[in-house]
Amino acid sequence: MNEFDRLKQIIARLRGEDGCPWDREQTHVSLKPACMEEAAEVVCGINILEDTGNGDNLKEELGDLLLQVVLHAQIAEEEGLFTLEDVCRGISEKMVRRHPHVFGRETVNQSGEVVTRWNDIKKAEKAGKEWTDDYLPEAFEEAKALIDAAKRRKGFE
Fold first, then answer.
1. 110 within a domain of the structure (yes/no)
2. What whole-number distance in Å separates Cα of residue 47 and Cα of residue 120?
3. How far apart, in whole angstroms, are the C-alpha atoms of residue 2 and residue 7?
4. Model confidence over 108-141: pLDDT tens digits?
5. Contact predicate 126/94, CB 8 Å
6. Residues 11/71, Cβ–Cβ less than 8 Å
7. Which of 14, 53, 112, 151 is the most core-located residue (most Cβ within 10 A)?
């Protein structure tokens, strides 16, 4: 069994009847603070890597962020919404669609062209779903508040 499958099994067990009471209580909403904190800690790991050349902290923090993804996907599967396999399929398909210069017949010569094409493809994909962007300003404010709370919890304010 590969380590990714092992992680999925561990999370399913933690959420199972004979698992951990804390893990079973978690919801998408209750995990928001941890998700934001782990994302900030990945940034910290990148900074440590850049300053010292040591990737140990980044490896650990990426694992913690991956845990958040797998845990959210497990909860979604329990709710009948989607599976981790669906998440992986979705991002794989998106990467292939948004890189026609790699997986298709288009040619680009500069990264600026890649960004322009990416944005064009994204706009076409989001057609009819533009209303989802209406949630972003509030989400950014919530993310900032969650990060501020994490800083207080860790004693940085």
1. no
2. 32
3. 9
4. 989 999 999 999 999 999 999 999 999 999 999 9
5. no
6. yes
7. 14
Contact 64, 41 (CB under 8 A): yes
What domain range is 59 assigned to? Answer: 1-82
Place of tokens 């499958």: 5
Whole-angstrom distance between the N-terminal and C-terminal Cα of the chain?
44
Over the stretch 15-65, which tens digit does the pLDDT of each residue have?
999 999 999 999 999 999 999 999 999 999 999 999 999 999 999 999 999
Total number of domains in the chain: 1
Tell me, yes or no, if the pTM score tops 0.85: yes
Q: Which two tokens stand for residue 66?
A: 């991956």
- Residues with Cβ within 8 Å of 12's Cβ and at least 6 positions away in sequence, in order, are 74
Give the CATH number for residue 76: 1.10.287.1080
Tokens of 56: 């140990």
